[in-house]
Amino acid sequence: MVNLDAVLYGLQSFWEGVDIQGDALRLLIITQLPFQNISDCVMKARKRAIARQTGNEWASFREIDLPLMLMRLKQGLGRLIRSQDDRGVALIADGRMGRRYAQTVLSCIPPFARPDDEGQVLSGYPDKVERFLFS
Q: DSSP label at 121?
């Protein structure tokens, strides 16, 4: 029997090694995109080297930060859909999704129902999510 009132809070460790199949996990809320810790000294050195080589501070973001975050995001979304029979709702509630790299984020994950280009929720979508979660 599945407990529909269960809540799992996952921090960095949630992004890998968790296997929850079926209806036990139906809603995944991502409050922050899983960017690497900016205080990591090895990452800082790699980013400085890229900035020096390219003469562009943002090159390291495109070459290091964004690809690592996208890989971790896909891993996190993979916690929700573990098999062809799994289904669920993933909500990315990070305000940075409105920035210019949002299209890159959305293009790297499988197709799904999502907000339209103006960031407005599709008509009736909240009701569909509620019916799904409580069915």
A: P
Look at residue 54 in the predicted model and tell me its pLDDT. 92
pLDDT exceeds cutoff 80 at 116: no
pLDDT digits (tens, 9 = 90+) for 74-115: 888 887 777 777 777 888 888 888 777 788 888 887 766 665
Compute the distance between CA of residue 108 and CA of residue 103 in angstroms, rounded to an integer: 9
| Structural domain count of the chain | 1
DSSP 7-42: -----GGGGSS----GGG--EEEESS--PPPTT-HH
Parent domain of 32: 12-36+73-133
Tell me if 94 sits within 8 A of 30, measured CB to CB.
yes
Q: Tell me, what amino acid is at 118?
A: E
- Looking only at Cα atoms, what is the longest distance across the chain? 58
